[in-house]
Design brief:
Elements: E1 18-19, H1 36-39, E2 43-50, H2 60-67, E3 71-78, H3 81-94, E4 101-105, H4 109-115, H5 137-142, E5 153-165, H6 166-171, H7 178-184, H8 188-200, E6 207-209, H9 212-220, H10 240-254, H11 266-274, E7 277-283, H12 286-294, E8 302-305, E9 313-320, H13 328-338, H14 341-351, E10 354-355, H15 358-363, E11 367-368, H16 377-387, H17 397-414, H18 418-433
Parallel strand pairs: 2-3, 2-4, 6-7
Antiparallel strand pairs: 1-11, 4-9, 5-7, 5-8, 5-9, 5-10
InterPro entries: Bact_solute-bd_prot1, SBP
Pfam families: SBP_bac_8
Region (Disordered): 412-434
């Protein structure tokens, strides 16, 4: 799966997450008063996103409107981030049809900072530089332009874990305790070895993992350098870490460990409830998706354990204000409020999006989730978020990732040789990015 495939958060609705310890419900902000434009009348702030950021579902828009009389927030969104990005590029080039707030996937933020900075507002003009200490250093740095411009404020991050079906594990004679499993699959070799044991006694037609593309994506998310090095040089073909992720995905495909499901497809969605696979690489945002697809019948059948091979990050987004926005100041005030620790805490509580604001990470440290067998998700994902490498982001990260996962699908579904598939990935990258 491509890292930016932001249908990842499509329409998933999380049940209540039980938080151990008190969570702040305060909605304070440095912009509690009505905006200048709204002072003489009403103002409508338009927000254009992809997938489901969860603001509306968590009640944050309604709360902001209550705190700011005269302000109305109207949101549009596109399910598939690739479609959203294509449309956004067209509108940015034409300078028309843009919302006051635009969402930017983490895999696209380098394109914004390195190639399109002149098309977005420098939020530093509105006081954003004073917010730097709110965010994890990597999250803040990724949205900083070459001239020090602040081109977006961070929303969630994607610390990684593994989600698994305890009922299927038990039927296959495998242990179900999350601590024991974390030791058994401390490495990716250990994870695949356990998968072979599962396959030998797999209940029904279930597979060990949903797709080898998801295995590749979660592994490459553990690396600092993936497709580019720190100097901006393309390194993906010669990057040993990338080839290791590729080789493990190929091994899983050729070993018959995959359910061969296209992520985000109707068949994949149905597989959560049908029990078609026993494990799935699981960034924090995946929790809500699993709940939405597995439904109430899945409660207590799922659990979460630490990831093999160490911490990593897969996904996350930003909120930015285009230069062509109609209400720039009001848009900034909204995104400052939405990305504040208090609101990020509430969003995790309601929707499961793991916060990028450091203060919010501390507040959710005791969170447990009854749907996932009371897994200590606050600790598991919090530890991963703090230990994840600061990743080098390149302009064409998304495009390269898409070509690699397409090639892995050829091995998985068509039985193509790894050599032929790799050659196709190379050609695909060349054709896509030139």
């Amino acid at each position: 799966m491509p890292i930016a495939r932001a249908a990842r958060r499509t329409a998933a609705r999380l049940g209540a997450v039980v938080l151990a310890g008190a969570l702040l419900a305060a909605c304070g902000s440095s912009t509690d008063g009505a905006s200048e434009d709204a002072a003489g009348g009403e103002v409508t702030i338009t927000v254009d996103l992809f997938g489901s950021f969860g603001y509306k579902e968590a009640g944050l828009y309604a709360e902001y409107e209550r705190l700011h009389p005269g302000v109305t927030i109207k949101q549009t969104d596109t399910e598939d981030e690739a479609d959203y990005w294509k449309s956004l590029q067209t509108r940015l080039a034409g300078g028309a049809g843009l919302a006051d707030v635009q969402g930017i996937e983490v895999g696209r933020i380098a394109s914004v900072t390195q190639q399109q900075a002149e098309r977005f507002e420098d939020l530093g003009k509105y006081g954003a530089k004073a917010l730097e200490d709110r965010f994890a250093p990597a999250k803040w740095a990724a949205a900083t332009g070459r001239g020090g411009e602040v081109l977006g404020l961070g929303t969630d991050v994607g610390p990684e874990a593994l989600c698994y079906r305890t009922d299927l594990f038990e039927q296959a004679g495998l242990p179900t305790d999350r601590e024991e499993l974390a030791k058994k699959w401390a490495t990716w070799d250990g994870y695949l070895e356990l998968g072979k044991r599962y396959k030998a006694k797999a209940p029904g037609r279930s597979a060990w993992i949903d797709s080898v593309g998801s295995l590749y994506s979660i592994m490459i998310g553990q690396e600092k350098e993936r497709y580019y090095d720190a100097s901006g040089k393309l390194i993906w073909e010669d990057n040993p870490a990338l080839r290791t992720a590729w080789d493990h995905a190929v091994e899983a495909a050729q070993g018959g460990l995959s359910a061969k499901l296209d992520q985000w497809s109707p068949q994949w969605n149905q597989a959560f409830a049908a029990g078609s696979f026993a494990t799935i690489p699981c960034p924090a945002w995946m929790l809500g998706y699993i709940k939405g697809q597995a439904g109430e019948a899945g409660k207590g059948k799922w659990d979460v354990a630490a990831l093999p091979g160490g911490a990593g990050n897969w996904g996350g987004s930003y909120l930015a204000v285009p230069r062509a926005a109609k209400h720039k100041k009001e848009a900034y005030e909204l995104i400052e409020w939405l990305t504040a620790p208090e609101q990020q805490t509430r969003l995790f509580e309601k929707q499961g999006n793991f916060p990028s604001a450091t203060g919010a990470i501390d507040k959710v440290a005791g969170a447990k989730d009854p749907f996932f067998s009371d897994a200590p998700i606050g600790k598991i994902f919090g530890d991963a978020a703090k230990a994840a490498p600061v990743q080098v982001l390149g302009v064409h990260d998304q495009n390269i990732a898409q070509q690699i996962t397409n090639a892995l699908s050829e091995v998985e579904r068509k039985g193509a040789s790894p050599e032929k598939a790799w050659s196709n990935a190379r050609k695909g990258v060349e054709n896509t990015i030139g």
